[in-house]
Amino acid sequence: MAPPLLLHVYSTFGVGGPQVRFAAIANHFGQRWRHVVVAMDGNTACRERLDPGLSVSFPDVGLHKGETTGNIRRIRAVLREMRPRTLITNNWGSIEWAMANAVRPLAPQVHIEDGFGPEERNTQIRRRVLTRRLVLHGCTIVLPSQNLLRIASDVWRLPRKNLHYIPNGIDLDRFAAQRTPDPDRAPVVGTVAALRAEKNLGRLLRAFRLASADGAVPGRLVIVGDGPERAMLEAMAQQPGLLGRVHFTGHRPDPAAALAEFDIFALSSDTEQMPISLLEAMAASLPVVATDVGDVRVMLPAESHNNITALDDAALAAALRRLLLDPVARQHEGAANRGRVVQTYAETAMFAAYADLFDGRVSGA
Fold it and tell me: How is 101-113 classified by DSSP, letter by letter?
């Protein structure tokens, strides 16, 4: 008898937090399920994270942007043909699938909401709020941050019984590299991020320049990742105070190897919820400087709270400067971050919670 089929829908299957999490879950459970992954934009770059022995396909289901009514008909035809055990939709980009399954559902549905793009950074778009309230009312909803849990309950007004807070988890062994401080090497500030507007890496470049404006602070900045803002950011890096000190690596398939080269991890985003990149940095025993977004303050231990800043260049620069000048603080805070992940964010609990949802053992799934 064939394993149950799970149908996953993403606006993109490029490398990002939700896609990396799915890869970790699928790899962990192996042949427990078969998977179909629909990438609405055709980008399947994150398939590099999937074990080759998995049963995974990436069909083109023939949807057309802007043709909502026609797409809903096509989606219902796909659901009838594939008959998935569970339909798993991800974020606003998959909302047409939730619409198609809302009236006379053809499959049990789990909807995972990881956060918002820059257009909803400061406030929720009313049309989207009402749509979510209507079409997600009967779904099981997974939320990886306490901030999203509050929004789903208080703003979208979804039934509290259908909401499940499942924090992201991390492979502790994979990021457990021991780092030996090198007093002869200038410290490296690094980040791992998609180069998109909401990550506001321009803020990180400006803050890094401010942190060493007097020439007293050594260091380099390494940006790991790719995306539509790369050319603009590379042009910024040619400015005085940054020229020759910033390195763009592009996409690297193994973030653990990249993190092992950093001394400080920086997150400069305008909007996040529970960033996996931050968990990875914490698991790698890195001190962190981060903007105060989403669940960042919940994730980091008290020892690191002085490094959580307003969405402001100068505030981020001050936190960077302190750590760049204090190797003892870097080591102490990095150890505290690792301890927090070990205690709270091991991936085993995440795996068990998602297995219950995907197998239908949770009410509403």
Answer: HHSS-SS-EEEE-
Whether 181 is covered by a domain: the verdict is no
Give the Cα separation of 246 and 186 in Å (integer). Answer: 13
Range of 120's domain?
A: 5-169+347-358
State how far the Cα of 174 lies from the Cα of 60, in Å rounded to an integer. Answer: 33
Q: Residue 365's pLDDT is what?
A: 43
Residues 338 and 351 in one domain: no
Of residues 120, 112, 119, the one with CA closest to residue 149? 112
Torsion sign over Cα 218, 224, 229, 234? positive
**What does the pLDDT read at residue 214?**
77
Q: Per the structure, how many domains does the chain have?
A: 2
Per-residue burial over 149-174, b if 16 or more Cβ lie within 10 Å, else e, is bebbbeebebeeebbbebbbbbbeee
Size (the chain), residues: 365
- What is this structure's pTM? 0.83
Query: In CATH, what number is assigned to the domain containing residue 279?
Result: 3.40.50.2000
248 phi/psi in degrees, rounded to 5: -105, 120
**112-158 per-position pLDDT tens digit:** 999 887 787 778 899 999 999 999 999 999 999 999 999 999 999 99
CA 35/CA 82 separation, integer angstroms: 11
In this predicted structure, what is the pLDDT of residue 49? 94
Question: Strands 86-90 and 109-112: what pairing?
Answer: parallel
- Name the residue type at position 170: I
How confident is residue 253, by pLDDT bands cut at 50, 70 and 90?
A: confident
